[in-house]
Design a protein that fits this description.
- The longest helix has 16 residues, at about 170-185.
- About 40% of the residues lie in helices and about 15% in strands.
- Helix 1 links the parallel strand 1 and strand 2 (about 35-40).
- It has helices spanning about 20-30, 40-50, 55-65, 100-105, 110-120, 140-150, 170-185; strands at about 10-15, 35-40, 70, 90-95, 125-130, 155.
- It is of the alpha/beta class and about 200 residues long.
- It has one domain: Rossmann fold (3-Layer(aba) Sandwich).
- Strands 3-2-1-4-5-6 form a six-stranded parallel beta sheet, sandwiched between helices.
- It starts with 8 loop residues before the first strand and ends in a 20-residue tail after the last helix.
- The mean pLDDT is about 95.
- The chain has seven helices and six strands.
- The structure holds flavin mononucleotide.
- Flavin mononucleotide binds near residues 17, 43 and 47.
- The site of flavin mononucleotide (FMN) has 16 residues, from helix 2 and helix 4.
Length: about 200
């Protein structure tokens, strides 16, 4: 439980491309007043350096100002999220590398992110994985199929072309909303992000 009594959402950031999606999910949750617990792998920090204008350290500081944000080092197995006895609402791994997909699929809890995901599976809590790689090989696909059978939501960053996105930021915003919806944090997608069909109103 966080200071305000609500169970936090865990956000794991692994070393796949797409750091901007991690930032989007964390910031949207904080804007909604939801407590967030995050951990990031060393590879995630490497990718962040490549892809983002703001350093990861500065982002952690900024999120910390919300009073709703807690960060644990990836090697800190004493963090509360390593135990099923600590109440969390759900967890997203965004972006999720194929290495982390593989580790979670076989129960290899060798860092805090992977352990927290393993806990979500054993406690039957919502786990949303945003895998990013292309193309996918049979190992990736089999790991994801196993995770889906275990109850995880596999949410690839797939643009909603039918919404005619005009920018990368449109696509990222859509993925962020999709992730929040899959986590059960929102009851519906924003109206502008819903497919309305191709029929005229009333017909
Ligand atoms: C700039 C950069 C981009 C990467 N992009 C991806 C990616 O999109 N998908 C992926 O599965 N791995 C990607 N990798 C490789 C992973 O970072 C690597 O497999 C790492 O071991 C993952 O560790 P982690 O899952 O603990 O974060 C990338 C690495 C770098 C340096």
């Amino acid at each position: 439980m966080s200071d305000n009594g609500a169970s936090p959402v865990v956000v794991g950031i692994s070393g796949a491309s797409g750091s901007v999606m991690a930032r989007g999910v964390i910031e949207r949750l904080l804007e909604m007043g939801r407590p967030v617990v995050a951990t990031a792998s060393p590879a995630a920090r490497m990718v962040w350096r490549d892809e983002m204008d703001e350093s990861f350290g500065d982002a952690l500081e900024r999120w910390g100002d919300s009073g709703l944000f807690t960060h644990y080092a990836i090697g800190d197995m004493t963090a509360p999220i390593a135990s099923g006895t600590f109440s969390v609402a759900s967890m997203a791994v965004v972006p999720c590398s194929m290495a982390t997909i593989a580790a979670i699929a076989v129960g290899l809890s060798d860092n805090l992110l992977r352990r927290a995901a393993d806990v979500c599976i054993k406690e039957r809590r919502r786990l949303v994985l945003v895998p990013r790689d292309t193309p996918l090989n049979a190992i990736h696909l089999e790991n994801m199929a196993n995770l889906s059978r275990l109850g995880a939501t596999i949410l690839p960053p797939a643009p909603a072309f039918y919404l005619k996105p005009q920018s990368v930021s449109d696509i990222v915003d859509f993925m962020v909303e999709r992730t929040l919806y899959a986590l059960g944090e929102t009851e519906a997608l924003p109206d502008a992000m819903r497919y309305k069909g191709s029929h005229d109103a009333g017909s």
